[in-house]
Amino acid sequence: MKLKVCILFFFLASFASVFSQSRLVYVNDFRDDWVLGLSGGVQTFQGTPSSDKGFSHSLSPALSVTLGKWLTPAYGLRIGYNGTYFRDTYGEDVSFFTLHGEFMFNIQNFVNDDMNDHFWCASPYIGTGWAASRGENKNDGWALHFGLQNTFRITSSLQAKAELSAILADKEFDLRIDSGQGFDKLYALTIGLVYRLKFED
User: Secondary structure of the chain: what % helix, strand, coil (to 5)?
Assistant: First the structure.
């Protein structure tokens, strides 16, 4: 219940911020400024109860695929998939995936709205989605997603990216019954590429 309240609060705060800005003007048309992202890296799981194992024992591979659209130079939306497996507090592997949608805010383009004028752009984001974990049993539910995407221009159509992300999920996302408070958390550092899709008229 608390997670749903957090998700609702962050969405309301995000959209209130967007629509309070006088610079919210849609640019180009529906076919423009679509981006496809693919990245991989490492992630660490932090759950309850906490682990007594070292940090290296909690690491596992991370994979992310996203499709987004910049509605304006500063504001965008994207959908994504994350999944592989994470290593729980007991060192056991748990398969998982998340399907999520996020609101993105490009800091540099908010200051200077020429999307092609920046070598580096930092874009914090927040959103929600469906998170599922599988093992001897399963857990499904809503999760909160947030993070920071950094992109570096290679060409007008291609960017490199480095992203820090976090997922807050149900406290039993690791498939272990827990009577305590809080969330299971999955933090990831990924690097990859973002390709600007071009549609012919």
Answer: 15, 55, 35
For residue 67, the one-letter residue type is L
Contact indicator for 44, 59 with CB cutoff of 8 Å = yes
Residue 69 CB partners (closer than 8 Å, separation 6+): 33, 34, 35, 76, 77, 78
Distance between CA atoms of 53 and 75, rounded to whole angstroms? 41
Residue with tokens 């995000």: 14
| Beta-bridge partner residues of 132 | 97, 140
pTM of the model: 0.83
In this predicted model, what pLDDT tens digit does every residue of 60-106 receive, in sequence order? 999 999 999 999 889 999 999 999 999 988 889 999 999 999 999 99
pLDDT greater than 70 at residue 120: yes
- Return the CA Rg of the chain: 18
